[in-house]
């Protein structure tokens, strides 16, 4: 159960992180943000990042072996990185129609899957 809770919280965290880091690139298409300056964009992104931390910190606390969770620190980091890339690819394909998923991206993901395998190998 702690495994699923940790992964679910990491997914939510990464959705907010991706919106904070890359969502503002679409703001110019929204009428109420067309004249927003850099400071405004930074503050909005910072506000979104707060929600990222509200999910990320509990995920790591619940999932970490040192707190009774199922994952080592290295395993938590690799899980987080894989989730980050999956969320980012889905986000970029849905919201940035000019972006595409190419063969070299697929190869990179295969290497990430290998990284997960080796990190979790006893």
Automatic annotation (TrEMBL):
Keyword Calcium part of the UniProt annotation: no
Keyword Transmembrane attached: yes
Superkingdom of the source species: Bacteria
Swiss-Prot/TrEMBL keywords: Membrane, Transmembrane, Transmembrane helix
Transmembrane segments: 36-55, 76-96, 102-120
InterPro entries on file: DUF486 (IPR007437)
PANTHER family recorded: DMT FAMILY PROTEIN (PTHR38482:SF1)
Protein name according to UniProt: DMT family protein
């Amino acid at each position: 159960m702690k495994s699923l809770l940790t992964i679910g919280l990491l997914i939510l965290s990464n959705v907010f992180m991706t919106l904070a880091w890359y969502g503002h690139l679409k703001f110019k298409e929204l009428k109420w943000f067309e004249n927003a300056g850099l400071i405004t964009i930074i503050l909005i992104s910072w506000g979104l990042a707060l929600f990222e931390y509200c999910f990320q910190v509990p995920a790591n606390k619940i999932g970490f072996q040192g707190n009774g969770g199922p994952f080592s620190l290295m395993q938590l980091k690799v899980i987080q990185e894989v989730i980050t890339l999956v969320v980012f690819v889905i986000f970029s394909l849905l919201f940035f129609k000019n972006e595409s998923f190419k063969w070299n991206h697929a190869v990179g993901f295969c290497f990430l899957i290998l990284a997960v395998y080796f990190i979790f190998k006893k």
